[in-house]
Amino acid sequence: MNMLRKTLCVMALGTVILAPVMTTAVYAAPVAASEQQATASLVRQLSGIRSLTANFEQTTKATTNKAKQQKGLTAQHMNQTFRGEMKVERPGKFFWQTTTPAKQTIVTSGKTVWIYDPDLEQAVRQTLDEQVSNTPALLLSGNTSQIMKSYRVTQPNKAKTYYTLYPKNREGAFQSLTISFGANKAPSLMILQDSLGQTTYVKFNNVQVNSKIAASTFNFTPPKGTDIIDQ
What's this model's pTM, rounded to 2 decimal places? Predict the structure, then answer.
């Protein structure tokens, strides 16, 4: 029971047993940071992270009628929870592996991004250009100065370490990205809203900050027989 409901309950009982007691609770509205303050605060959060490992749970939900009418692969993945592990090392090294209910690996050492699907025996190879580096997953492994050039940063409550970022390039894959940091200054939650009316929630747990990660983690060699697609 929240505090307001509890207060109303006590007041209602008071009319029966005791003389009515009128209380007025005053709540201060959260103060939003300016864009400059929000940007500086986010840079402080990210700059302390040299490496990061975590398990994740990712769920995508349809939030508009447009998204609910989607068919095919996107619809099949809707409302499913995908689990796996993430490893990040600055600058630009990233490993993201989904283990259940389907397997997929996304890995980059800073120059080339590989997206490997073992079930399809297929690997997509992409150059890590500016457009790819603006994807939300790579935000955590990117250069902070480049991030600030690519996003408009807001902080709805300057007393809380959560931020909503809006890409300056409106032709990107998403419309907004909210990232929240826990007590250890590591990300605990990311919320992504895309142009299709879908919202993706990524929760992080077992987070380790600045632990040593083997260099081989970010190197990928397609298994023999894999169909390689260049994009």
Answer: 0.76
